[in-house]
Design a protein that fits this description.
mainly alpha, disordered N terminus
């Protein structure tokens, strides 16, 4: 029986060209993997996962792996319970999409490896709504956005402006969770792109400082008692808010353009990023990032690009210059 099983595995390897080049030397390890993972062997032979469902499964796996990181690191029992329920819901959706196989006993990485295995040499999509490993969006429009996973918090106690609060939360996520993955500590860029990255980080830091000025004015306005002073503060608050939103949108558009260049480099297997396949492991002594822990560098870049694109879409600003 084992001989027949090995013969089937040989036939499967001949059908999957990425492994064919490895020759018979690759057989023992692959055979051992499939023997210990019978569900993996069955899914590898499955023909029912169409491209649309595959893209959706990969997207759900992204969220599952991200939430598993939250479960491992959070100190809040309430958050852990809520996230675990989300994980079960997403796994149920995966079971619905992979219709003829039981993947309930497989972990997220096993499913991902199998789905990626047949297209290991395929180029990575660089479109904003492509079906990449981390940053894909569902063509049906029902996909959860990456921005939806970031909790929106008030920029200050008396800030009720939804756009200000959204940008406050997203900028914080970019600085704390996403930028460490693109820092020179974890992402090795060539000289020119490294310098461009530093300039873009300065733009994000300036946006955060501008936000602090806006929130100071918001709090002053909320506590001011003199009517004339309140009117002056209201005008100042409105002007600062408009300028902040516009300038932050411009900074995000420049960041998106830069991330698009990196995405093209990933697709073309270029030399801008020299460690695309490195796995991110943040040092909790120096870094507060947890969301992208365990991602490959290229996956983190693609997800960051998707997040920035979603923020720009939510702002939905016209291309006009704000006059002071």
């Amino acid at each position: 029986m084992q001989t027949r099983f090995t013969a089937r595995i040989c036939f499967f390897i001949n059908l999957t060209c990425p492994l064919r080049s490895l020759g018979k030397a690759a057989l023992p390890g692959l055979e051992k993997y499939l023997l210990y993972n019978p569900e993996s062997a069955m899914l590898a032979q499955s023909k029912t996962v169409n491209p649309e469902n595959k893209a959706e499964v990969m997207k759900l796996l992204d969220f599952i792996q991200k939430m598993e990181g939250i479960v491992r690191t959070t100190s809040s029992a309430e958050q852990r319970s809520r996230v675990q329920k989300d994980i079960q819901r997403y796994r149920g959706k995966i079971n619905e999409l992979v219709t003829d196989q039981d993947v309930s006993r497989m972990n997220a990485q096993q499913i991902r490896t199998l789905l990626e295995g047949s297209s290991a040499d395929a180029p990575v999509s660089t479109s904003t709504h492509g079906s990449t490993a981390r940053a894909g969006a569902n063509a049906s429009g029902s996909a959860l956005e990456i921005a939806d996973k970031i909790q929106i918090e008030a920029a200050s106690p008396n800030c009720t402006d939804s756009e200000i609060n959204m940008l406050h939360s997203m900028l914080h996520a970019i600085q704390v969770e996403y930028w460490p993955a693109m820092s020179d500590r974890h992402c090795q860029l060539d000289f020119s792109h490294s310098a461009e990255r530093d300039g873009l980080r300065l733009n994000i830091d300036n946006a955060v400082r501008h936000l602090e000025v806006v929130t100071e004015t918001i709090e002053e306005y909320a506590t001011a008692e003199n009517q004339d002073f309140r009117e002056q503060l209201l005008k100042m608050k409105n002007r600062q808010t408009r300028t902040f939103i516009y300038e932050t949108n411009e900074a995000l558009k420049k960041l998106k353009a830069f991330l698009e260049k990196l995405a093209v480099d990933i697709q073309n297997r270029g030399g801008i990023i020299s460690n695309k396949e490195d796995v991110l492991k943040f040092d909790e002594r120096y870094e507060n990032a947890t969301m992208l822990n365990g991602y490959r560098v290229q996956e983190a870049i693609l997800e960051m690009r998707q997040l920035v694109s979603e923020i720009i879409t939510r702002l939905n600003l016209p291309n006009i210059k704000i006059r002071e």
